[in-house]
Amino acid sequence: MSLYAVTREAGPGWTSGGIFEQPGVSEHAAFLNKLAAEGLLLFGGPLAGTENGRVRALLIVSAESEAEIHRRIADDPWVPTEQLRTVSIEPWKILVGAERLPASAARRQNSPEPQPMSRTEVPAPIDR
């Protein structure tokens, strides 16, 4: 399994108001809780300040492939109503903080148990 950062945002079916004013919010929450219980969704929530308007959300997902994520997210009750749309799905590699992941998530990455970075380890600069 690999980790992915999934960005979702309000779609054309989003009604005025925040998350908790949306039709079907209970069903959407139950869907996300199910994905979390199954181990697919590790972390998720609105990006700060967007929960009261046209929401943008970040999900950290453990999955076999991007296709699996598309397939599983398609079952969200907010997909057919176009309240939410997926903007991006990107592979995500943890460089710092992996030791804070649940052990089950670390195993899903098909890698040895994560080790904290030492103070002398510095990630390579990103070329832009």
CATH architecture: 2-Layer Sandwich
* Spatial gap, N to C terminus: 28 Å
Order of helices and strands: EHEEHEH
Beta-strand residue percentage: 15-25%
Describe what you observe in this structure:
This protein has 128 residues and is α+β, with helices and mostly antiparallel strands. The protein has a single domain (2-93), classed as Dimeric alpha+beta barrel (Alpha-Beta Plaits). It has three helices and four strands; from the N terminus they run βαββαβα. Strands 2-3-1-4 form a four-stranded antiparallel sheet. It is globular, with a radius of gyration of 16 Å.
How is the topology of this model organized?
Elements: E1 2-10, H1 25-37, E2 41-46, E3 56-63, H2 66-73, E4 84-91, H3 103-108
Antiparallel strand pairs: 1-3, 1-4, 2-3
Overview in brief:
This protein has helices at 25-37, 66-73, 103-108; strands at residues 2-10, 41-46, 56-63, 84-91. It is an alpha+beta fold and 128 residues long. It has a single domain (2-93), classed as 2-Layer Sandwich (Alpha-Beta Plaits).
